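Most newcomers find our protein records easier to grasp once they have seen one. Read left to right, the backbone structure tokens trace the chain's path through space. Nothing more is needed to start thinking about how sequence determines fold. An example says more than a description, so a record of this kind follows:
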Amino acid sequence: MELGSIKDAFDRVAKKQKVSSSKSQEVVDQVGREIELALATIQSPHDPSTPVDQKSVLTDLKVKLDAIGALKQLEGSQKELNTSLTKYQKLLEKLLNPDISKAYRNVDFDTHLVNQIIATHFYHQGLLDLGDSIINEAGESDESDATTLKYEFLEMHQIIQAMKIRNIQPALNWVSDNREKLVQIGSNLELKIHKLQFIEVLQNGTRADALKYARTYLAPFASLNKDEFQKLMGCLLYAGRLESSPYSELLSPIHWEMTTEELVRQLCTLLGQSYQSALSVAFAAGVEGLPTLLKLANLMASKKPEWQAMKQLPVSVELGKEFQFHSIFVCPVSRDQGSEENPPMLLPCLHVLCKQSIIKLSKSSTRTFKCPYCPAEATVAHCRQLYF
């Protein structure tokens, strides 16, 4: 909600700025035209016996400039812009509270685990020296989980750097070493890498070179990828001029970028790691949930001990779908997570509660109860269990 309000206010300021700029340019153009006309009159050829009365021309110019009222027009548009800017600044000060420490709560962290997460983040980003510094300064063991992953991430970034200069060999070496595991997860990464190289050979080499490459490296995939294989064979007709062919989109750098990203994702999968580091995900989720936490902290400012002692937040913190990693359900009434003993139940009104919450509301299997989120009524028999 806050970001929406800020965006709307920014759009209003941007609109006012465009109007002000347009108005200013219009006024300047008007003044410029009148001055140019006066200069043209003064400098125009004339009969020496009847010289131009320059004083009269300048007097007329002054009258015209006064009629334009340049200063008044500019002040008006600038005043409106300044008013919008002032309101925008106040809105930012109101919504973007810089004191985020209000949302802080005393939480017991596993120091060892936190150190591992931070070090792994830097290894994940390819900042190996920084990750090593974290491990050393924290006094962590050289045989820790993060240190074990260090060399795997080093290989990953070497592959990424090679792909950036269109060198597929490191990627193919990794695929060859992990071929069985990739097959188990249904990966066709090896085909995609060879496809990139085939297009490179076709564009920069000869048709014979491309055909040889296809027979050597693409043929093993032909039976399971007929459509893709036929498309690549069609490219042979345009050797050296693929950019002017129906297959020109295959030259787009986006294919290298997408294949590199897929390679990194699958490498992380085989390592048992997420594509994004745990620290970056936690940070992003924290940023998204911070406004709600700040509001709650401000409301409970007078009850600081209670805020610190809370085991469960009294409100839900809505996060985007990218932060939903598991199919779980938390009852909006009891705040309990769904389980086999307390499964989620669908009411006729399409709201969902946990079974125990429904039993408490109904007090009887035959008694009618009101949904806590809408006026609809139901009985336990009307509710149906949901399966995630």
Remarks:
- The mean pLDDT is 84.
- Residues 112-271 form one domain.
- The CA atoms of residues 121 and 378 lie 50 Å apart.
- The longest helix spans residues 2-43.
